[in-house]
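Here is the promised in-class demo. Please do not try to memorize the tokens; focus on the logic of going from shape to residues.
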């Protein structure tokens, strides 16, 4: 047991292989549009798989089993909301995206409200995506830290040093194919890596069951004793105030999952960019809706792994759920198998990281640079700038990942909390533009700002659970935006009357 030279060779071979594959399938880009939306001819099922792989990351691979290990299956309720939210996206947002040859989600806001609103939304996206990806990238360092701690050569290194080395290694390999192959390389490698990390996790589960005395029977016995298979939690036993502090009640999970999914998959350039890579609105709708069902199944799979880990380590409980699956992979699996599964873990991290680099670069170029500095720039110059921005955001993401090295909280909840704080205002602004005709640019910016301010206050000064954040922010943005539009109309009427 333990990580051997064979395992290191397997991991290195995988990293080199997936980078080479990404460069090959990416081909040569002739324009920024090729680099960011892949010529709009990628099959919808491939896009659906790529969406699943992108939102999965190392956080799902590590932290969701950890949640089930520490608690139960309540997190699965979020998946119900995810499906509801994606159906809403398919019919509320995607038609607007396909009315023009759009490259970013925020071009819709420019058409509806104006340039300033698009810029505001784009900047918020850049901040949100940077922080959320930083958490995901840091998560990848956890198994490598466990591996490196067992070797004398790293005895003089601190945990911080070990995490930093891991982060830099995974970033370098991901950057190579993202930089050279653009979104086409990102999407096709996402699909390959989705099957790699799911296969690796399935292999780990099979070996885990083989080590238990009664196999699946041991899991069922331990789960029954620990109430691990509890799925629905209504949470109506306490006060009303207490109800809003519980993360995974059924209402909070479904509403929170729906609003979060609408924001992440309907307004976040990381996902919208993939949906714009299909050749029609219908195919884009199929891609986003099917991805919700795939993610639900994937959540269930990783939660079951967490329950199996509970059965495996039942006599030796751990307090840190994020450490438990990497610990099993590194310490319990045979030589060679550990390498395969660590490579699978890297696959989940690389799929998310590559997409983040490309989407951050696209939003920077299309939403912030070209409107002011590159209106008449050539395709060749835009493509060159796209790659320069990819380099810039890669460096920023690595630096951001270092910030989270000393965190003690569940990384999936950190990531979702960060995203939810800014997603509320972003989603509210899109809904304000899609559902209402009267609000203008000033109303949208005022509403957006109000949503952000309210959520910052909720995040830092209240015990309200993160599952409510996106809905609170979206509703605040819509209400304030509508009130602002009425005041604007009334003021204009009074002025015209005088």
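The designed amino acids, position by position:
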């Amino acid at each position: 047991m333990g990580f051997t030279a064979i395992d290191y060779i397997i991991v290195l071979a995988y990293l080199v292989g997936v980078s080479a594959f990404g460069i090959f399938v990416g081909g040569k880009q002739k324009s920024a549009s090729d680099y960011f939306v892949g010529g709009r001819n990628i099959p919808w099922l491939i896009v659906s798989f790529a969406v699943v792989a992108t939102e999965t990351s190392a956080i799902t691979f590590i932290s969701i089993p950890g949640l089930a290990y520490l608690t139960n299956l309540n997190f699965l309720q979020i998946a119900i909301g995810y499906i509801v939210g994606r159906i809403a996206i398919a019919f509320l947002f995607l038609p607007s995206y396909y009315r023009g040859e759009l490259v970013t989600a925020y071009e819709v806001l420019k058409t509806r409200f104006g340039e300033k609103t698009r810029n505001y939304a784009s900047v918020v996206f850049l901040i949100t995506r940077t922080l959320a990806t930083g958490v995901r990238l840091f998560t990848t360092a956890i198994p490598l830290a466990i591996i490196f701690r067992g070797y004398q050569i790293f005895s003089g290194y601190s945990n911080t040093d070990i995490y930093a080395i891991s982060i830099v290694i995974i970033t370098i390999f991901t950057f190579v194919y993202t930089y050279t192959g653009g979104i086409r390389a990102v999407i096709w490698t996402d699909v390959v890596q989705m099957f790699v990390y799911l296969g690796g996790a399935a292999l780990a589960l099979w070996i885990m069951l083989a080590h238990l005395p009664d196999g699946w029977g041991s899991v069922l016995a331990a789960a029954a004793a620990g109430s691990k298979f509890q799925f629905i939690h209504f949470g109506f036993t306490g006060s009303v105030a207490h109800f809003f502090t519980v993360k995974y009640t059924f209402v909070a999970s479904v509403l929170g999952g729906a609003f979060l999914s609408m924001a992440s998959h309907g307004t976040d350039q990381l996902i919208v960019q993939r949906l714009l890579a299909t050749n029609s609105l219908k195919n884009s709708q199929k891609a986003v809706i099917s991805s919700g069902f795939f993610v639900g199944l994937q959540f269930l799979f990783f939660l079951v792994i967490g329950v199996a880990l509970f059965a495996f380590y039942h006599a030796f409980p751990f307090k840190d759920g994020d450490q438990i699956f990497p610990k099993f992979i590194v310490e319990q699996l045979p030589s060679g198998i550990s390498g395969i599964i660590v490579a699978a873990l890297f696959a989940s991290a690389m799929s998310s990281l590559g997409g983040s680099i490309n989407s951050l670069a696209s939003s920077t170029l299309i939403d912030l640079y070209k409107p002011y500095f590159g209106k008449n720039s050539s395709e060749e110059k835009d493509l060159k700038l796209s790659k320069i921005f990819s380099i810039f955001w890669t460096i920023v993401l690595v630096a951001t990942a270092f910030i989270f090295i000393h965190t003690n909280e569940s990384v999936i909840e950190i990531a979702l909390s960060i995203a939810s704080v800014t997603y509320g205002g972003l989603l509210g602004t899109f809904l304000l533009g899609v559902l209402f005709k009267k609000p203008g640019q000033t109303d949208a910016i005022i509403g957006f700002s109000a949503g952000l301010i309210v959520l910052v206050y909720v995040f830092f000064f209240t015990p309200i659970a993160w599952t409510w954040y996106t809905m609170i922010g979206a509703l605040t943005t819509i209400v304030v935006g509508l009130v602002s539009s009425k005041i604007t109309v009334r003021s204009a009427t009074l002025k015209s009357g005088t």
